[in-house]
Amino acid sequence: MPPSLIEVESIRKEYPMPGGAVQALRSVTLAFEAGELVSIVGASGSGKSTLLYLLGLLVTPTEGVYRYGGREVQALSDAERSRLRGRQIGFIFQSFHLVPQLSVLQNVLLSARYAGNGNGKTGGRARELLERVGLAKRLTHRPAELSSGEMQRTAIARALLMDPQVILADEPTGNLDEKTGAEVIALLEEFHQEGKTVIIVTHNLKLAERTRRKITIANGEVAS
Amino acid sequence: MSHITSWREAFLNLLLHKARSTLAILGIVFGVASVICMLSVSEVARRDAVSRIERMGLKNIILDSVKPSKIRQKEENQGGEESSGVAQYGLTREDVKLLAATLPVIEKILPIRMVWKEVFGGLKKTEVGVLATTSDYPAVMEHAVRHGRFLAPLDEIHAQPVCVLGHDAAQTLFPLADPLDRFVTIGGAPFRVVGVMMRKGQSGSGEDFANPDQSAFIPLATSFARFGAYQVRNSDDTFEGTKLEVNRAVLQMADTSILGPTAQAARNLMEKRHRQKDVQVTIPFHLLAEHQRTERIFLWVMGSLAAVSLLVGGIGIMNIMLANIAERRSEVGLRRALGATRGDILRLFLAESTLLCTLGGLLGLAVGVGLALGVGNLAGWAVAFKPIAFPLGLGVAVLAGLVFGTLPARQAARQDPVLALRSE
């Protein structure tokens, strides 16, 4: 049986704080298959975002094993993890995180900067993606000139530029109204249909119900 | 991420905050400008001092007649007015002969006497001074003849009434005509012009000595034969009489290694013969070394001031960079999420601080050149620049960018990407 795309085993994450260490994750064991659409739900402070960032190689576990494509990644150097993240994982954030001084197109192309691809190779794909998310006419606009929905669609295009295997979305509809949120989810579903693994952290139970698999995190542990 | 992209991005980020960036680099601009200006001023001073000292002759020992303190005090007691009486001091022709006889290492010895006589060109009194000397003057003082000849040994032997004009003196006395074989009146006596000198410039002890360019040279023997050993200077109600035979004796050596011992021997000899301490011995070569020491101290002092200025500028850059990074924390988090390594983040911010300081350095070079030209214009000197000043000024600015940008850039690179992402 081929290994899962992502596997975490007995993962523990502890944040040292002046008043004593805070346990964000305690003995989490999970596996994500390629092409899955998964939602992670839980109360605020339950550890779901920490789990998402850990899956995205932005957080190093205090203990446990993390395998990506069957390869243990916690022993990798910062540069190796960054390279893997830049090429294999796309992030979508609640607050979009667009660089205000860059245009829509430049924001999307920012993904390519750290993956070693120049604008010449990725420019066409960036335009294609922006057309797909309905922003073909907004290429030169700055983020301040966009609506919240347009900003999130720009962020989705940015996340997909390097054609990653995994999309990690942290509350992607948190700052959007219901209608715009539904449009964004529809887009994510569309990319999932094309074979992407999409993992969404959300408070929105309605959104979670639309995913095939729902993981509930409580007190840093997998509750269900 | 490629270095070109880092630099381009850094430039765009700086452009976004033009006012802040401009204010941030002011310290660097003035620091570099002060380096350029300081080095320019020191270069002007160095060139001036070195050329004055060199004109005295680096293989020479100079013996100057100085008014003894006893005579000076007497003059001061009389209310600063010139004394009415005859002061007798200084080198004599006998001293010159004795020095030549007792110190065989001396290649040439050149006596020079300032003659207090007025020089007339036609009926017009001029500011031209009179220097009485011998035929060795051009060789010892490295002052060449432009036109005609210098005083010959025969002129000295026969105390001929001939003269050679300094470059400016020739222009003053004969602005339109060739001065050769024409006559000038010195102390009421006619002197035939036999030559004109090249331009030389004032030597190191110029304040006390006649400018050779603005002088007429006559044979030493002629000065004594025509005007005597005593000299008188009249003013409205006083007169100053002096018996001063030789104002200066220049001893030329074969090389610089024997300057010290020879000067000491000359000093000892003069101390024996001149109890009233009216002879001062100077070694231009040693003056040059002394000047170089002084210049080094000056450079250290000015360099320290410039370094303080650059330090303040660098701290300003560090502050701005820290503020910049605090403002862009979430951007750092985003870049990390997009695959940037810690090194990429470090390079991004280091490129910004280095670029900021490089721009400050370039601006500083321009301001420094402008300031030096302005100061030179005000002070009336020819501005000179040390070529090393430009790479040095720019290099220090770039270094300041790297040094003072490192701490903020490291801070940015070490940020927890998740905390950075949540900071918005």
Would you give an account of this structure?
The complex is a heterodimer of chains A (224) and B (424). By secondary structure, chain A is of the alpha/beta class. Helix content of chain A is 34%, strand content 25%. The model of chain A has no long low-confidence stretch (mean pLDDT 89). Chain B is α+β, with helices and mostly antiparallel strands and 424 residues long. Chain B is 55% helix and 17% strand. Chain B has 14 helices and 15 strands. Chain B has helices spanning 3-16, 18-55, 69-77, 93-102, 137-140, 153-157, 167-173, 220-227, 259-273, 284-327, 329-337, 342-379, 389-413, 417-422, and strands at residues 60-65, 85-88, 108-115, 119-121, 124-125, 129-133, 145-148, 162-165, 183-186, 189-197, 215-219, 230-234, 239-243, 248-252, 279-282. In chain B, strand 4 (119-121) and strand 5 form a beta hairpin. In chain B, helix 2 packs across helix 12, helix 10 (284-327) packs parallel to helix 13 and helix 12 runs antiparallel to helix 13. The two termini of chain B are 25 Å apart. Chain A binds chain B through residues 49-50, 53, 56, 58-59, 78-79, 82-83, 85-87, 91, 93, 95, 97, 99, 101, 110-111, 113-115, 158, and chain B through 1, 5, 12-13, 16, 330-331, 333-344, 417-418, 421, 424.
Question: How is this fold's topology laid out?
Answer:
The complex is a heterodimer of chains A (224) and B (424).
Chain A: E1 6-15, E2 22-32, E3 37-41, H1 48-55, E4 63-68, E5 71-72, H2 78-88, E6 89-92, H3 104-113, H4 119-132, H5 148-160, E7 166-170, H6 178-193, E8 197-202, H7 205-209, E9 213-218, E10 221-222
Helix pairs in contact in A: 3-4, 3-5, 4-5, 5-6
Chain B: H1 3-16, H2 18-55, E1 60-65, H3 69-77, E2 85-88, H4 93-102, E3 108-115, E4 119-121, E5 124-125, E6 129-133, H5 137-140, E7 145-148, H6 153-157, E8 162-165, H7 167-173, E9 183-186, E10 189-197, E11 215-219, H8 220-227, E12 230-234, E13 239-243, E14 248-252, H9 259-273, E15 279-282, H10 284-327, H11 329-337, H12 342-379, H13 389-413, H14 417-422
Parallel strand pairs in B: 2-13, 6-11, 8-10
Antiparallel strand pairs in B: 1-14, 1-15, 3-6, 3-14, 4-5, 4-9, 7-10, 8-11, 9-10, 12-13
